[in-house]
Amino acid sequence: MLQFLLRRALLAVLVCLTVLVVSFVLTRLSGDLAISIAGPNATAEDIATIRQNYGLDRPLVVQFLDWAAHAARGDLGSSYLYHAPVAGLIADRLPITLTLGLSGLAIALLVAIPLGILSAMHEGTVIDRGIGLVALIGQAMPSFWLGLVLIIVVGLKLQWLPISGVDTWEGYIMPAIVLAFSAIPALMRLTRAGMIDALASDYIRTARAKGLRTARIVLKHALRNAAMPVVSVAAVQLGFMLGGSIVIEAVFALHGVGYLAWESISKNDFPVVQAVVLFLAIVYIGLTLAADMMNAVLDPRLRSA
Amino acid sequence: MNAVLEVANLRVAFANGTQAVRGVSLKVERGETHCLVGESGCGKSVSSLAVMNLLARGATRSADVLRFHDTDLMKLSERHMAALRGDKLAMIFQEPMTSLNPAYTIGSQMAEALTRHRRVSRAKALDRAAELLGRVGITAPGMRLAQYPHQLSGGLRQRVMIAMALMCDPELLIADEPTTALDVTVQAQILRLLQSLQRELGLALLLITHDLGIVARMAQRVSVMYAGEVVESASAEALFAQPTHPYTRGLLACIPIPGASRRDEPLGSIPGVVPRIGPDFQGCGFRDRCAHAAPICAQVAPLQHAAPGHDYLCRLPPDWSAAEAA
Ligand SMILES: Nc1ncnc2c1ncn2[C@@H]1O[C@H](COP(=O)(O)OP(=O)(O)O)[C@@H](O)[C@H]1O
Ligand SMILES: [Mg+2]
Known about the structure:
The complex is a heterodimer.
Chain A: H1 2-29, H2 33-38, H3 44-53, H4 60-72, H5 86-121, H6 126-140, H7 143-157, H8 173-199, H9 202-209, H10 214-243, H11 246-251, H12 257-266, H13 270-298, H14 300-304
Chain B: E1 5-13, E2 19-28, E3 33-37, H1 44-52, E4 60-62, E5 65-68, E6 71-72, H2 78-84, E7 89-92, H3 106-115, H4 122-135, H5 141-145, H6 154-165, E8 172-176, H7 184-201, E9 204-208, H8 212-218, E10 221-226, E11 229-235, H9 236-241, H10 246-253, E12 303-307, E13 310-313, H11 320-325
Parallel strand pairs in B: 3-9, 3-10, 7-8, 8-9
Antiparallel strand pairs in B: 1-2, 1-4, 1-5, 5-6, 10-11, 11-13, 12-13
Helix pairs in contact in B: 3-4, 3-6, 4-6
The complex binds adenosine-5'-diphosphate and magnesium ion.
Residues 44-45, 94, 176 of chain B line the site of magnesium ion.
């Protein structure tokens, strides 16, 4: 078990390093950073000074190692744009993104798992097909579009919820729903498929032979075995939600990490881009390990392997 | 007094048209062992699952009579059936490797069989589980209770399934080839345990087996199944003394010689295989493999009485084999 986790952790670190190197190289290739930092009115002299001050004249490998060495000590550098430490910028925006991502995932699971169970229990019937259709429509709907529809109907017409910002917790409701929506179809299908397999298995027949009630059979005996792929995918989805909520943060004017990423990429704020990538890679590693550990809790066969 | 289990004209069809059970009738009395024999695929497991109402989705069952004591099981709601299952009516499945839930300990799975039906604490239920594990010959039951199914061999899992079925002292036990994964000593121990439960508690046992040695040792009555039908039904002595259906005679001809045989050898070295029976099938299911088949066998296989309580499904007269030998 420990060996299994160590192997997974090592793999995750490798993925993380690769992503960092690639993103580093890509930002450097996307244009001369010194020119964009200096702005349109800068002289050639200014640009040369900036290049030297920021160390942009050194070979790429040296620049990367320098950055990595600082990052390892917790120093992520300063934003060119905000002239403030990058770590602070991310930390400021993290609560918004975390709240949004976690509530989005919670909503997604609360909807997808019961629907998936219901679908599996009524496999092939009208109920199953109805739920499948809803999932299909949900999948086809782009999140920015759903976001705008919600803003127009719930926010502007009905005036039930605020349309932007998170001054109160109610501001999170609409963006969290939109975020959840994109995760629901996949989670629901996985739950359904896992539950159909589980419900047809011999151990469910044994549970029925013991006379157990349906709720106990479905929720205790079948769901536990169907849950593992759902846990793994939910972890990946949460990763997307934490890093990929750029569109939704933009639509609802939430200043989270996603918004920061978008801003820094469009303005070539290189230290911020690099730090956000690092942050996401760490989130990815953490979530993958968390999913593996949860699966080991769910399945004793993984624990003794 | 009524039989513990009475079945008349039980039929099961699957969605693909397979008629897996075609008019099975049998009775199991209190304290009695009724053996169901026949080669693989002839409908023994499906018949017993139909009695328990545990058939796979897409299977339909019907019966003229399906009664447990005075309770009509055909009319029983799933909720009331569930209240009987695992309590008065228990079943041991043929698939010991996959019949336990991989996610829960043996103890947890055994205990819930008791706590579902009786007002007992989990600790009491675990005590009962440990006691039964001991009775099916498992050493260190306390340790086994804390283990998961994947940590147990096939033979141990089969014994766990047997012990689990006995948690509530059932009145009827349907055991579908319960000792196939067990070695001879353990098998003998299990059979002794079942016999003592029959003496002490009047357990009625519907025992499905390939092993005619077990039939000879355990059965008071025997039903021989072929292609979804009971082709011969008799007391155990009558069946061994005067097997009448050609299929039964074929089975008995393959009885292994003690000592020189493999216990797990399947029944019926009769040439050919069990046919798949579709909705339009007519006549005798065994005719393609029968040395005595006649044109009439393609139309009907009449039910005949060889003696009181000894029925068979064949055109041949009761004394055909004696006549043939003469
Ligand atoms: N779920 C199912 N769907 C379709 N056919 C089935 C199913 N289960 C069993 N059968 C068929 O029913 C017949 C009887 O099977 P079974 O009762 O398992 O035989 P056995 O006497 O070996 O226990 C076989 O022909 C088998 O293929
Ligand atoms: Mg079988």
